[in-house]
Structures are given as structure tokens and as C-alpha cells.
């Protein structure tokens, strides 16, 4: 075989790339990772980790208010955005250091440069250096989509939102997906006047309709404003620095910040993949087979850049399976069935398996069990906010094919329940399990 500089060169040091590097190295491969920005990828640096920390911080607004109902003499508290922002960014730095240590401990070389593919086994670094590898792994993730409208340069994306100098008094959030809903909850709790702008009619497409409707009801009750079927025309910057969002119809909205949360596109622009004959689909995603191999035999791809399922745990599993397949002598596929997911909105949403609509389309006869209740804490706190748990059951086999929830700690509860759905347990298995009382989770085994 021809000699190469490395057995494996990975482009992108996100969750999938770092896992693939670590596992491949443990199998004895010589590995290098080229990363033009920071180690950790979207999730660690500018995604789910810092966002979850902001969610924790924002939640204190209601917790402090509720505490008074539980007997605590809580004074009026001021909030300092800079303190939260800087502490979150400091923790991001800490996590990046851990990721670097993982690479170092496995003798993976980290190259802090942009890499461009120049052939089936070769890349060129930004410095002009050419390097070769037996295999190349593309793990460059995805990038926020910015709408093509006049004045779009005045808006920001989730890349920039963690670095704001102040908490906006008024914010327009464009989009209806998980990123939009999560930041709507964050900024509303921190005191911002939030307007969500959606060009369609639905929030959180792909989640169960009843759960989505409940989130909309609660969000409106909390004071978040919504503009549906709203097509933006332009964004103007006023002389005082504020922004005016204009629409094809309806009144304009004035805000301090416009946040685009309109989806993420696979990050393949300028990677040079065409030089190796790597096929991309119409969205720019790298097309791969069940083992993450592209149309070029020596080039693989994992994570959001393939647009199979844009979730950090899936990128990690894909990276691990790739390394085991190529370097560990153990051909492994990733199972994309019954993958749990959550939206850390306020309150959070979580689901696994088929929604009611999907189950009716696929199975025909289904049974639906639901519990619509006010959590005990909300009762004493004087909050009318209700939780909703929903179970979807195959009427023919009694197998539970879907669980969907909205309410406090829903993602934490669903993670354990997802094991039962993945295992194919039946409704009677839930019924036969003794309730853990008093808890919200007990509703799952009391559904009748």
C-alpha cells in the first residue's frame, strides 16, 4: 500500500470527529484532526451546552418568584447578563480544554488550520501544506441559515447570541423550531419582550401535535408574542441603533436584536469535496451509506454534515461506529429508530417513537392514553401551567410505540422511559410497574 502521513485525517473537531479520533487511535491508527476554529464543535462551543446553561440561569426568574409561595422571604433580585454570559463562556473554555486533553491522551495530532480536500487521500491546509491519509473523515457539522432578505446583515444567529454585550429589551426570534423556542424561553425569563416570527403556521414540526399546541398555549399565557404566516420583507436599522422588521403584510416590529433561528445547513461549502468525487444532495449534505462511507471509497462523513439526524448523540454514535468499522475490524451500523429528543423550551418538551399522526398512518389501529395535570409544585406556587403526558400504543400488539411529554423535567423523565419504548415493551408492562409517589413520572404507569 502507498504510504501516507496518517491513517486517518478528520476535518472538524466536533462531537463526532473527536469521538472518531479517540476510538480510531485506540485501535492503533495514527490520527490527525484539522479544526479551523475551536475544539468541541457546535454543541460544546456555541450550541446545546452553553444554551442549556443559559436555560438554567433563566429558570431562576420563576424559581425565585415561586419560592415566596413556599415561605422564603426572597427580596426583589436584579439580573446581570454579563455575569451569566461570562460564567457560561468560562465553562465553555473548560470543556474545550477537556476535549483537547482527550485528543492529547490518545496521541491525536490537532492541527489548528482549515483543511480542504484535494483528492481521495489528500488535503491542503490553509498554510499551503499538503498532507495525505489512508482515510479522510468529514465531520464539519452544520451552519445557521440566514434568510435572504434586505438588511439580513443586521440580524444575528445562534453563533453570536452567546456573546451579546447586554440582554435585549426587545428581541425578534425568526423561526419555529427547537432553537427558536429555546431562546424564546430564555430571553422571556430574563425580562426581554419576545416576538416569535414564523413564516408557517406550526411550531416544532415533527413533534406530536397536542404537545406542540400545549407549548404554544403556555408560551402565549406567559406573554410571548407570535406572528404566524409572517413573511419578512426587510430589516432596517434606525438611527438609535434599534431594528425595524418589516413584513409583506401586517405591522412592523421594532426590536433591539433580531435572532435568526431558521434552520441549519450542512457545512460543506469550500471543502473541495468535488475534487474527490464526493456526492452531495440538494441541501449540500454529504451522501453516505449505512457505514458512513461516501461515494469516494476512502472518504467518510459523520454528524450534521450528513443531515441524517442532527443530534449530538447521533454524531457521537456515528463517529464511534465509523472507527470500529474501519479500524477495529467490527462493521457497525447506527440504529436511527426510536431516537429520543427534547426541546429545552419553557416548559421543556420531549418525545420518543411515533407521534399519534405517524402511528395512525403506519399502524392504522392505535390507542392513545394521556394525562393532563397540574404538577404539585405549580399548584402551591399558584401557577395554572399544566403538564401533558401522552402514550401511543399499537392497538393490535399492545406495544408502546411512542411517548410524548411537556412539563417540568420532561427530558429527564423521558430518557429513562425511552429505554422501555426502544425495548418494545407493552402497555401492560407500564401498568405492572409500581408508581413512585409522589412524582410527576408516576403518571406514566398510571395511564388508564
Q: Termini separation (Å)?
A: 64 Å
Number of domains: 3
Structural class: alpha/beta
Name the helicity range: 25-40%
CATH fold node name of the largest domain: FAD/NAD(P)-binding domain
CATH architecture of the largest domain: 3-Layer(bba) Sandwich
Mean pLDDT: 96
Count of individual helical segments: 11
- Rg, nearest Å: 24 Å
Biggest beta sheet attributes: 7 strands, mixed
Strand content: 15-25%
Shape: globular
What is the CATH C-level name of the largest domain? Alpha Beta
Beta strands, count = 21
**Fourth-level CATH superfamily of the largest domain:** FAD/NAD(P)-binding domain
> Uncertain regions: pLDDT < 50 for 5+ in a row?
none
Overview of this protein structure:
- The chain has 448 residues and is an alpha/beta fold.
- It has three domains: 6-144 and 265-327, FAD/NAD(P)-binding domain (3-Layer(bba) Sandwich); 152-262, 3-Layer(bba) Sandwich (FAD/NAD(P)-binding domain), CATH 3.50.50.60; 347-445, Enolase-like, domain 1, CATH 3.30.390.30.
- The chain is 31% helix and 23% strand.
- The protein contains eleven helices and 21 strands.
- Strand 11 (232-237) and strand 12 (243-247) form a beta hairpin.
- Helix 1 runs parallel beside helix 7 and helix 3 (48-69) crosses helix 5 (178-189).
- The N and C termini lie far apart (64 Å).
- The mean pLDDT is 96.
Amino acid at each position: 500500500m502507498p504510504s501516507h502521513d496518517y491513517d486517518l485525517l478528520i476535518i472538524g473537531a466536533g462531537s463526532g470527529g473527536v469521538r472518531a479520533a479517540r476510538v480510531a487511535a485506540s485501535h492503533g491508527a495514527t490520527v490527525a484532526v484539522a479544526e479551523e476554529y475551536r475544539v468541541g464543535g457546535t454543541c460544546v462551543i456555541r450550541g446545546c451546552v452553553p444554551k442549556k446553561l443559559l436555560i438554567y440561569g433563566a429558570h431562576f426568574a420563576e424559581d425565585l418568584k415561586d419560592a415566596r409561595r413556599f415561605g422564603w422571604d426572597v427580596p426583589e433580585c436584579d439580573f446581570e447578563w454579563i455575569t451569566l454570559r461570562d460564567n457560561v463562556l468560562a465553562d465553555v473554555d473548560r470543556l474545550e480544554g477537556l476535549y483537547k486533553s482527550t485528543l492529547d491522551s490518545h496521541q491525536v495530532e490537532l492541527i489548528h488550520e482549515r483543511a480542504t480536500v484535494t483528492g481521495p487521500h489528500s488535503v491542503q491546509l490553509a498554510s499551503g501544506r499538503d498532507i495525505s491519509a489512508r482515510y479522510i473523515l468529514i465531520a464539519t457539522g452544520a451552519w445557521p441559515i440566514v434568510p435572504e432578505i434586505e438588511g439580513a446583515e443586521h440580524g444575528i444567529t445562534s453563533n453570536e447570541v452567546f456573546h451579546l454585550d447586554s440582554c435585549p429589551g426587545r428581541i425578534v426570534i425568526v423561526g419555529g423550531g427547537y432553537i427558536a423556542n429555546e431562546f424564546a424561553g430564555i430571553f422571556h425569563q430574563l425580562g426581554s419582550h419576545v416576538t416569535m416570527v414564523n413564516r408557517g403556521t406550526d411550531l416544532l414540526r415533527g413533534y406530536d401535535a397536542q404537545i406542540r399546541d400545549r407549548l404554544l398555549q403556555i408560551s402565549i399565557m406567559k406573554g410571548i408574542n407570535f406572528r404566524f404566516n409572517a413573511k419578512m420583507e426587510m430589516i432596517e436599522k434606525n438611527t438609535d441603533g434599534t431594528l425595524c422588521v418589516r413584513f409583506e403584510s401586517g405591522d412592523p416590529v421594532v426590536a433591539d436584536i433580531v435572532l435568526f433561528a431558521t434552520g441549519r445547513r450542512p457545512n460543506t461549502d469550500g471543502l473541495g469535496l468535488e475534487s474527490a468525487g464526493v456526492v452531495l444532495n440538494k441541501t449540500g449534505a454529504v451522501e453516505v451509506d449505512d457505514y458512513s462511507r461516501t461515494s469516494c471509497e476512502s472518504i467518510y462523513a459523520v454528524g450534521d454534515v450528513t443531515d441524517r439526524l442532527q443530534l449530538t448523540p447521533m454524531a457521537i454514535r456515528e463517529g464511534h461506529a465509523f472507527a470500529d468499522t474501519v479500524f477495529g475490524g467490527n462493521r457497525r451500523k447506527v440504529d436511527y429508530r426510536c431516537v429520543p429528543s427534547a426541546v429545552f423550551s419553557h416548559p421543556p418538551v420531549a418525545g420518543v417513537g411515533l407521534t399519534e399522526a405517524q402511528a395512525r398512518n403506519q399502524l392504522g389501529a392505535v390507542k392513545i392514553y394521556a394525562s393532563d395535570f397540574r404538577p404539585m409544585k405549580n399548584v402551591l406556587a399558584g401557577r395554572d401551567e399544566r403538564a401533558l403526558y401522552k402514550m401511543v400504543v399499537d392497538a393490535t400488539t399492545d406495544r408502546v410505540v411512542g411517548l410524548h411529554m411537556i412539563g417540568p423535567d420532561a427530558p429527564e423523565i423521558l430518557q429513562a422511559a425511552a429505554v422501555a419504548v426502544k425495548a418494545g415493551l407493552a402497555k401492560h408492562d407500564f401498568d405492572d410497574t409500581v408508581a413512585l409517589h409522589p412524582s410527576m413520572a408516576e403518571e406514566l404507569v398510571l395511564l388508564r
